[in-house]
Amino acid sequence: MYLDYNKKNDAFVQRSQPFAKKLQQLIAGPVSQVPASTKKHFQALATDHEKSANGALPSLTYRVLSKMAFGPSPADMDWIASLPGATEQDRVLAYIDQQLNPAGIDDSALEALLATDFPTLNKSRAQLWAEHYMVADTAPNFWEIRTQPAWELGQATFARALKSKRQLEHVLSDFWFNHFNVYADDTPILSMLVHYERDVIRQHVLGNFRDMLMAVTRSVCMGFYLDNATSNQYGPNENYARELLELYTLGAGNYYQHLPWDQVPVDGQGRRVGYVEADVLEFARALTGWSYDGAMWEDYQNGNTPTGAFLFRDGNSWPMDFHDRGQKRVLGQYFDYDPNNPQKDLTDIIDMLCEHPGTAGFIAQKLCVRFVSDNPPQSLVDQVAATFQQNWQAPDQLKQVMDVILKSPEFLNTWGEKVKRPFEKVIASMRAVEFDHSFYPGFPGIPDTHPRYQELYYTNWISWTYLNSGQRLYHWAAPNGFPDKKGAWLGASSLMATWNTQELFCQLPLDDALPEMAPIVTRTMAHFNTTGQTVSAENLVNYWYPKICDVPATGAVRQTLIDFMSMADSSNPVPGNPTDPIDLTTNEWPSYNQARLRTMVSMITMSRDFMNR
Fold first, then answer.
1. Closest to 189 in 3D by CA, of 261, 294, 263
2. Whole-angstrom distance, CA of residue 80 vs CA of residue 378
3. What is the CA angle 409-373-242, rounded to 5?
4. How far is CA 373 from CA 163, 366, 412, 553, in A?
């Protein structure tokens, strides 16, 4: 069956490569953008926000779903249209309010799927440690068991992005995981990644930044990844301290290198505006002893069984004095060790950083880059930073911050300032064509006789094809997370590797006798049966392009798609008459009409109109 599929599909995949390359060349051209309003309130949206220089701007609903969700789906487009409001803008704002309150969104269908198929997702920190990381090397399938949480999380991330109604929550989970990035290529991270994504990151994405930062600091994954779990007063490890200042709070823009600490400028409140190398060293001293049970060889001795729980190794803890009890000076302030509250020196430093305007500005800039533009207006960044800092102790601090961003004219009006990264592009494509797959992860040692083995096979195939995209989930090795500017994602290798995934799932399943996972042929035939139009190359492009991109195809992109769709003979791939009828009831040699249609649809997802967000 697999070989038969390749005989049918490879002919058109291979012949579509030149067309896909032409589309890739067209992607890098200038994009249409409505100038952002300089006014602060969403009521002041420009009346011409539906227009652009070439008249090809998608609807506000489509644009918003492309930027605060993993792309528009027909169901979500219909849902927003059904919300109360006199105008489209009113309905979009109602949707934003819903997404800012995910607990009120019924996601029970997805939750039932995850609870059934992904058993590790609901395991506690202690269970993940005991049942996966601590599994004996001699146990059957021990490596599969040890890595099962990370594998399940990866497939669940695909399923959530595709199927969840709580789209903003999962977009923010992706953002904040990248902000506090760990590299899932070693144990114990592989075994504990579910806990990190669920309890450390996702739990706080609309909560409080300080709470999230403290959870990160107490986690196994970050403690292992940046070596803080073994840092002690006799050899403080600077890794986590440095990244906490450079990547997580103040940002590299506020680094004054080796300048003497007392020469760093101060702001109107007397705060040092940035940090120096000496601050990194002092901060590392404060972080000594912040560990977890199981980080040290000694934790396994004398009959002890580590639990993976957070463990503060105080200055008098066995087997050695870990925490530095001396006074620390960070950003010109002094922090003393308190024997009655031995973690206070660090938590006070964390408080100072979370309240600092430098942190507010750095986080605001990064969020605006994610949701608005590679170069967001400073006026918006300043407004977001003010909200972040003024509410630094509020339990819903980050919700208030996102409310400002998502209701700003800059967010609502700007289009094409960002491009979808590989994961966003793949999921947006799946949502656009209504791809339906559970991403069933299987279980360690699943036999090929299992009734759901073919479902697992498709999951594996999609995952393995996607690996070459350049954005393998949870596998960015450096602590700075995946790049979030479009220049990083317009290379031919990443574009073509990502398109291979998009082409694959548009063709599934392998057996023509089974229902389509992406109902491309079914939707097409229903549309043309209803309208009575001729099923021709020209009409197929006219139908599918606006269905996926919310604008009509124009110029060279349109002609490229029509030429490809009119190639009726796979052995002689020459464009035919664009108005000739095409029989979509057949998928046989030499035309392979159904496979060609699916490939044409996947090619649309290579267009600049679809790449934009």
1. 294
2. 30
3. 125
4. 26, 10, 12, 25
